Amino acid sequence: MAVGYRELGLVNTKELFKKAMDGGYAVPAYNFNNMEQLQAIIMGCVESNSPVILQISKGARKYANQTLLRYMVPGAVEMAREMGSQIPIALNLDHGDSYELAKSCVDYGFSNVMIDGSSLQYEENIEVTRKVVEYAHERDVTVEGELGVLAGIEEHVSHEVSHYTKPEEVEDFVSRTGVDCLAISIGTSHGAYKFKIKPGETPPPLRFDILEEIENRLPGFPIVLHGASSVLHKYVDIINQYGGKLDDTAGVPEDQIQRAVQSAVCKVNIDSDGRLVMTAMIRKYLTENPQEFDPRKYLGPAREALKEMYIAKCDLLDSAGKA
Ligand code: G3H
Ligand code: 13P
Ligand code: ZN
Predict the structure, then answer these.
(1) Which of 271, 272, 278, 279 most suits a substitution to test ligand 1, by most atoms within 8 Å of the C-beta?
(2) Measured between alpha carbons, how far is 229 from 252 in angstroms, rounded to an integer?
(3) Residue range of the domain that includes 255
């Protein structure tokens, strides 16, 4: 049965981005697939008094069951209210790959949907994005489009290399599609292996020159940064210390994120750092307590560490205290 996002206690991204743009910070967009991740996001953002965008990918929807997720989200909103908080909460489809999927999410109460046509030909990207915008806007749901290709593996498509967003395309794309915000490619990528660098080297800086040109062409228009995990070394080390086998890896340095959020970047997507924290804490607990088999015993500390990580991210994005 179709439901509107307002009935679930959610907001779309219009007001969130307006305030973020004016205030020089970015709204965190955190992915979740299960109850502990959702709890940690809500608890962390309530403690930080930060607005938040909950994100569900196509894979998450399949993993956790779309109907169950539909009921978990208003539960999370209610939990935040019971904690005495009025933080605005949006729900976004992350990397929607078809009109049908985006439409289904609008009908399931999402307040924002991303249609990622970035791997399509330019005109095809415009066509599918415009179609999603038409359906979503009739229901006051906001839409994120994407131009440029991020390197890394997404569930529907894998890219060896990135293609930076072409600034000369952005005005045409935004005006012909009517999107509310635009994801761009300026050197970030998805997953834990973002940069091929030797030990001791620092990752190459993001292409702030491209971002600036986009800002000049689209004054005041909200920009989205995907692939923004810093690949927290502390947790990579814990994973490897307790039997994991992650290769040397590097994410987006925190000073680059801090710089980005002062610009038109109003939404920053973080998933991999949460995965690392959870895996590290579960590995550590089970190694140190091999007799334990109650999932609450190892998921509890993982959830606590996740919450702390989200609080630190809200500080980094400067969204803390902005709810
Ligand atoms: O950008 C992709 C997100 O990290 C979601 O990943 O498709 O494996 O759920 P997923
Ligand atoms: P990370 O893999 O860097 O966390 O990026 C997540 C993302 O962009 C989700 O859309
Ligand atoms: Zn992404």
Answers:
(1) 271
(2) 6
(3) 5-316
